[in-house]
């Protein structure tokens, strides 16, 4: 019987945070993501919702919004608890 070893490929995960100037919760989310990026392969970027009226209308009441590999994953109040922030992000990104 031949056993194949399962090899994990270190794939870069793309994370986008929808934000706007003065969003303190957004700053906390970005800082938490940067801490996670020190352990995992994350490419983190931000998108300012005020650059597009469509984005602003869609996300103005729910920022920060976190998109993982092109899919909106988290937003608003799910990211507001500082004690569980990294846990929530970790689950969403590395499920």
Structure at a glance:
The chain has 3 helices and 4 strands. The chain is of the alpha+beta class and 95 residues long.
Helix content: 25-40%
Classify the beta-strand content into a percent band.
15-25%
Spatial order of the strands in the main sheet? 2-1-3-4
What's the mean pLDDT score?
A: 88
What shape does the CA trace take?
A: globular
Rg measurement, Å = 15 Å
The first-level CATH class is given as Alpha Beta
Unreliable segments (pLDDT under 50, ≥5 consecutive)? Answer: 3-8
Write the layout of secondary structure elements.
Elements: E1 13-19, H1 24-37, E2 42-48, H2 53-59, E3 65-68, E4 71-75, H3 85-94
Helix pairs in contact: 1-3
Structural write-up:
- This protein has 95 residues and is of the alpha+beta class.
- It has one domain (13-94): Glutaredoxin, CATH 3.40.30.
- It has 3 helices and 4 strands.
- It has helices spanning 24-37, 53-59, 85-94, and strands at residues 13-19, 42-48, 65-68, 71-75.
- A 4-stranded mixed β-sheet has the order 2-1-3-4, covered by helices on one side.
- Helix 1 (24-37) links the parallel strand 1 and strand 2 (42-48).
- Helix 1 crosses helix 3.
- The protein is globular.
- The model is unreliable at 3-8 (pLDDT under 50).
């Amino acid at each position: 019987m031949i056993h194949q070893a399962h090899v994990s490929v270190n794939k870069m995960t793309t994370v986008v945070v929808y934000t706007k100037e003065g969003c303190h919760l957004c700053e906390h989310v970005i800082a938490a993501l940067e801490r996670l990026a020190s352990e995992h392969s994350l490419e983190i970027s931000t998108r300012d919702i005020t650059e597009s009226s469509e984005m602003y209308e869609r996300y103005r009441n729910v920022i920060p919004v976190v998109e993982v590999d092109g899919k909106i994953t988290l937003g608003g109040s799910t990211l507001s608890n500082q004690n569980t922030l990294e846990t929530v992000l970790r689950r969403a990104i590395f499920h």
